[in-house]
Specification:
heterodimer; A: mainly alpha; two-stranded antiparallel ribbon; 7 helices; 2 strands; globular; B: alpha+beta; Cytochrome-c3 Hydrogenase, chain B; 16 strands; about 20% strand
């Protein structure tokens, strides 16, 4: 097993130790600006570098991407019906994905409603749903909770048993709704008691 | 009298590492260790994830080679569902993948490993980087390098959504197809990529092969290591990046074994040392023999030179010419000359470009049937590709709903970790003598790992980040005498 301290041929060698919790950057140091995205797209990087060089930065703490959700800019928004009502959730591998229709309308989980825009909807253009890598907009504290709310409002039934059945088809909600935001969310991390 | 030298972190590679060098009483190197101080935990947090999300999660192992993880992961998901891609789906994946090999190898030669040769191994550190390379070869050539990479990356962008962390892989194919307009446009990119790869080989020839001092370093003993070699080959035993069987040859070049992806555990085992987070793979049928080279070793290498050693040739004609020339210059096959990895890398770059052209000349690549839907119950599967840095293995086990229960990733650079550790120790012993520790000499030791183009974030499935280097020089009382920082 790798050890923090070990001795080989009389030589002492060290390795760093690990924490049991993931921290966000701003939980550890003071952050001036946030460049979102995993990875941040080159246009946003270019804009940020330009803003620095021109001395044209917004107030400290700003996120350097527009403060609205992906759906606002998404080219599939036009095909989104007035009222989204899904009765079944599909995983991306289960269906042939229509390249023009809103993913949620096709019953495919897409984090667009809970995710900040600015990425050019690159995944959508590649015909795959959003997974939330830009994090939420300024008004949203917990990205996962925001998506749960959005999901709740588009499920097409009031019957409790039906709701349960539909929700059961959602796999790995924590890993999907909080994939990029767990350490900065209200949940923060898995419960230690659950691990031990 | 100095006793211990620490290079922490090491530079011009992906990931983190530190080198500890211990001097004896004469100031010669007694032992040297490459320690990898990072660990990610992908195999742990993969558990509980839907298997089709793994191609969108595992690329986060590395910002330099996300495409390779995406592709390998997608192939593993194919195997979990026992659903191969449609012919067109496969062609699109191969196009993305060869474009990626082309641009990633180019990155390494010009930005990471190349500066050692282009600028000179003992040149000041401030010049041993891409800016120094541009200074030497000129702004125009520098611009060509950046443009060549950008055009190849735009192919990946278009088909994969994002060039960093592409998203198009699904079991049975890909999510997005290629239309005729873009086929024609990308075909021109493929043609100029072939020209660029030949141009890079010419630069290597002019700067390295025509310089006797460099050739001496290449064939010299300090950078030699006698190991086995591993790489993917097609049904004709020709080198293939995307698919095939895994072939291993011994120190004399004779085939030792050849196996299918799902047999890898019969052939590869991993050894652990307390002083590094990276594991040390070896050939299971021989058993762990320690950090030794030569006939009795069970250590094997992967990545460009290893692939050229393990195959019977390149799959494309222009690259094949260079393959033959290289082995002639190096005195036969297999070549144990570690610095020749840089040369083999450029030959592979040429094959990648030639393959892109072949794929794009085939009009069936615009066929709309890019995906088939799995009907089998998901279970277990192994995907193997040749990452730029070596053989990459993703092995997934799921429940009947396709939720991950177990993941085993053996990531390219890991296969090389015993060899890298040994190469560094060997180079340190060759260059650091009598307590003489200059920065240039330390770089000669670092030159031992750069040919492998290591990706330690991958190697320890750990966070990529900056790779600064600190050199701590301790005296025999373990008092810090000097600290050099980069």
């Amino acid at each position: 097993m790798p050890l923090e301290k070990s001795t080989v041929d009389g030589k002492e060698l060290t390795l760093p130790r690990f924490y049991d919790t993931v921290y966000t950057l701003d939980q550890v140091i003071d952050v001036d600006y946030y460049l979102p995205g995993c990875a941040p797209p080159r246009d946003l990087i270019l804009n940020a570098v330009g803003a620095i060089l021109e001395g044209n930065l917004p107030p400290k703490g700003a996120v350097l991407s527009p403060n609205k959700s992906l759906c606002d800019d998404c080219e599939r928004n036009d095909s989104k019906p007035e009222k989204l009502a899904i009765s079944e959730i599909k995983r991306p591998w289960e269906v042939l994905i229509d390249p023009e229709e809103c993913f949620l309308a096709q019953g495919i989980i897409c984090m667009g409603p809970a995710t900040r825009t600015g990425c050019g909807e690159r995944c959508i253009v590649a015909n795959m749903p959003c997974r939330g890598c830009f994090g939420p907009t300024d008004q949203v504290y917990d990205q996962g909770a925001k998506f749960l709310a959005a999901l709740g409002s588009i499920i097409d039934t009031d019957d409790e048993k039906e709701i349960e059945k539909i929700v059961d088809t959602i796999v790995d909600p924590a890993g999907t709704f909080y994939r990029f935001s767990l350490p900065s969310s209200i949940l923060r991390r898995k419960r230690m008691e659950a691990i031990k | 009298m100095s006793e211990r030298i620490t290079i922490d972190p090491i530079t011009r590679l992906e990931g983190h590492g530190k080198i500890e060098i211990f001097l004896d009483d004469n100031g010669d190197v007694e032992r040297a260790f490459l320690q990898i101080p990072e660990l990610r935990g992908f195999e742990q947090f993969a558990v509980g994830r839907p298997v089709e999300e793994m191609p969108r999660i595992t690329p986060r192992i590395c910002g330099v080679c996300p495409t390779t993880h995406h592709m390998c992961s997608t192939k593993a998901v194919d195997a979990v569902f026992n659903t191969p891609p449609t012919p067109t789906g496969r062609k699109i994946r191969e196009l993305i993948y060869n474009a990626f090999q082309f641009e990633d190898h180019t990155l390494h030669f010009f930005f990471l490993g190349g500066p050692d040769f282009v600028v000179g191994p003992q040149a000041p550190a401030a010049e041993r980087n891409i800016l120094g390379v541009i200074g030497k070869v000129g702004l125009e050539i520098g611009g060509q390098v950046i443009r060549a990479r950008r055009e190849a990356r735009d192919i990946i962008n278009y088909l994969g959504g994002k060039v960093i962390h592409p998203v198009c892989g699904l079991p049975g194919g890909v999510s997005k197809g290629l239309d005729e307009e873009h086929r024609v446009e990308f075909l021109e990119v493929a043609k100029s990529s072939i020209e660029f790869a030949q141009f890079a080989l010419k630069i290597f020839d002019d700067i390295v092969l025509k310089n006797k001092d460099y050739v001496d370093i290449v064939v010299g003993d300090a950078y030699q290591l006698q190991t086995y070699y591993m790489g993917l080959v097609d049904e004709n035993n020709k080198l293939n990046f995307y698919d095939g069987d895994v072939r291993v040859v011994d120190t004399k070049g004779k085939e030792f074994c050849k196996f299918k992806p799902d047999e890898y555990l019969d052939h590869i085992a991993e050894h652990v040392e307390p002083w590094s987070y990276v594991k040390f793979p070896f050939l299971k049928k021989i058993g762990w023999k320690g950090f030794i080279e030569g006939e009795d070793t069970s250590i094997y290498r992967v990545a460009p030179l290893a692939r050229l050693n393990a195959s019977d040739g390149m799959a494309t004609p222009l690259a094949q010419e260079h393959y033959e020339q290289m082995f002639e210059v190096l005195g036969g096959k297999p070549s144990h000359h570690t610095l020749a990895f840089h040369w083999a890398r450029l030959i592979e770059t040429l094959q990648a470009a030639e393959t892109m052209k072949l794929l794009l000349e085939d009009k069936t690549i615009t066929d709309p049937n890019i995906r088939q839907i799995p009907t089998n119950t998901p279970n277990e599967g192994v995907g193997i590709v040749e990452a730029p840095r070596g053989t990459l293995i993703h092995h997934y086990k799921t429940d009947e709903r396709g939720i991950m229960e177990e993941a085993n990733l053996i990531v390219a650079t890991v296969h090389n970790s015993p060899a890298i550790a040994m190469s560094i120790e060997k180079a340190a012993k060759a260059f650091i003598k009598g307590g003489n520790v200059s920065e240039g000499l330390l770089n000669m030791a670092e030159m031992a790992f750069r040919p492998y183009d290591p990706c330690h974030a991958c190697g320890t499935h750990s966070l990529p980040g900056e790779m600064p280097i600190i050199i701590n020089v301790y005296d025999r009382n373990h008092e810090l005498v000097k600290r050099l920082k980069r």
